[in-house]
Design brief:
- With 223 residues, the chain is of the alpha/beta class.
- The chain has a single domain, classed as Alpha-Beta Barrel (TIM Barrel), CATH 3.20.20.190.
- The protein is built from nine helices and nine strands.
- It has an eight-stranded parallel β-barrel with strand order 1-2-4-5-6-7-8-9, surrounded by four helices.
- The longest helix is centred in the middle third of the chain and has 10 residues.
Length: 223
Amino acid sequence: MKIIGHRGAAGLALENSRASLLAAIEQGVDAIEFDVRLTADDRLVVIHDKETSRVASDRLIVREHTLAELRAATTLGNGEQFMSLDEALDTIGVTPVIIELKDEGSVDELLLALERHPKANISIASFHHNELRQVHKILPHTPVYVLEHYAPIAIINSARHMHATGIGLNKWLMNPLTYYLARRYHLDVYLYTVNGPLLTGLLHQLYPSVSLCTDTPERFRAH
């Protein structure tokens, strides 16, 4: 069972912050997941929401401000500045990372960042399947993971048709048929967000080959 740090290690430090990424690395996770969105100047910034109020001191719409404006106008709740994708990759180094693309139109900037970090161990995930198709077409050897909100069976066909590496599902959507089909078609599976040891044990018993994405990797290592 592989352990993926969710938004770094969001239970140990502010999500998608440098401190959170470093906390995940310190816990020895198998991979780190974080989110990126486009700014007004088409930079990719590490943040989950469309606006900043949940993690920062002010409410700004990410897509309406440049990266420099975001940094000048507000700070993260832990006093850090918003990170660009490049800065996050610099922080992570060679630790495997799953970058979730939250916005359509992200691929061009993503490719530029990856060119600047040729040694980075990158996988790409998104609910925007066209973004994944573009990544796979240009970088066919880069792993891509299809995300899905509501359809845990249909996601298998989506992943197969775009020759994806695997799928990412909310833990409550996982079911024996999806697991069977994923195994049959050689698709990796990761589930999010799994934080409790009892649920961890149950999922591991039912679906032993899945990876678990968690806010609290320290609990998993202890478990």
